[in-house]
C-alpha cells in the first residue's frame, strides 16, 4: 500500500508547497499581483478538476461495454 500512497502523498504536499511559495513571492511584490494569481489559480484548478471528472465519466461509460451497449 505504501508503494502507491507515499509517492501520491508526497506529490500532493510538494505541489501545495509550491503554490504557497509562489503566493508568498507574488504577495511580497504587490497586492494586485497576489489577487490576480489567486483568481487565475482558482480558475485553473476548477478547469483541471472538470477535465478529470469528464475523463473519469468517459472511462466509466464509454470505454467499458455495459449491458445497454451489448443488446443485440
User: Mean pLDDT, nearest integer?
Assistant: 82
Which outline best applies?
flat
How many structural units, i.e. domains?
1
Report how far apart the termini are.
42 Å
Number of helices: 2
Question: Sheet with the most strands?
Answer: none
Please provide the count of β strands: 0
Question: Which residues form runs of ≥5 with pLDDT under 50?
Answer: none
Which radius of gyration do the C-alpha atoms yield? Answer: 19 Å
**Could you estimate the helical fraction of the residues in percent?**
over 70%
Instruction: Quote the beta fraction.
Output: under 5%
Helix and strand pattern: HH
Overall structural class, as computed from helix and strand content, comes to: mainly alpha
Transmembrane segments: 9-28, 34-54
Keywords: Membrane, Transmembrane, Transmembrane helix
Structural account:
Keywords: Membrane, Transmembrane, Transmembrane helix. There is one protein chain. α1 packs antiparallel against α2. This protein has 2 helices and no strands. The termini are far apart. 85% of the residues lie in helices and 0% in strands. The mean pLDDT is 82. The protein is mainly alpha-helical and 72 residues long. The chain has one domain.
